Amino acid sequence: MNKRTLCKELMAEFLGSAFLVMAAISPMIFFTYVLGADKGVALIANALAVAFVLFALIEIFGPVSGAHFNPVVTMVMLLEKKIHAPKAAMYVLFQFAGGIMGTVLSHLMFLGEVGGVLFVADTPRSGHVFFGEIFGTFILVLAILMLVKAGSSKIAIIIGLLVGGQIMATSSTMFANPQVTVARMFAGTSVGIRPADGLAFVVMQVVGALVAYGVYRLFFKFH
User: Fold this and answer.
1) Separation between Cα atoms, residue 16 and residue 69, nearest integer Å
2) Model's pTM, two decimal places?
3) CA of 78: how far to CAs of 35, 43, 122, 220, in Å?
4) Cβ 196 vs Cβ 210: under 8 Å
5) pLDDT tens digit string along 117-154?
6) Looking at domain 3-219, which of 1.20.1080.10, 3.65.10.10, 3.40.50.620, 1.20.1560.10 is its CATH number?
7) Interatomic CA distance for residues 152 and 137, integer angstroms
């Protein structure tokens, strides 16, 4: 592969991941700490922000890198042989790096409210909430696979709406993304997730993605 092309793809994954994390963290800080809104209102704002931003990011970076922004999406694309292993590994590395950068940038924008740029989060998210990550990741990955298979031209809007809706419809508020989960382990507000729960979330996300891939393969077994 052309090195210049690969660099563009990795930069797209880095920037897309960073802005996706910013969209997940910043609204909760802004609405809760700046505007003094109820957490329920902040969650709705968060869902809308993620939906809008994700739609835009997929439209912007989709033609460059495929707009994965999510290690489990890269994983299933590797299983589908749409990306080779060394490139997939680089995608994942840049996704995680971009996500952590997104956390730093969100904190810099609201430095007066949060008081720092990186923290070790202590917000617990455990128990039945883990099932929310399986379900949320399952529907996200299945939707992406089905839409790509169909050659849909509406992937950006559909995935944006799906993720925004599922943030308000899952007990975990749908992280559904290992790099977002790790990035939020370093968030110093209620938007964070303590590392032990974050690692459990990542396991649930991988499980949800693999089940989605299995269902996808079964669905097209007879076609």
Assistant:
1) 6
2) 0.96
3) 43, 33, 34, 18
4) no
5) 999 999 999 889 999 999 999 999 999 999 999 999 99
6) 1.20.1080.10
7) 20
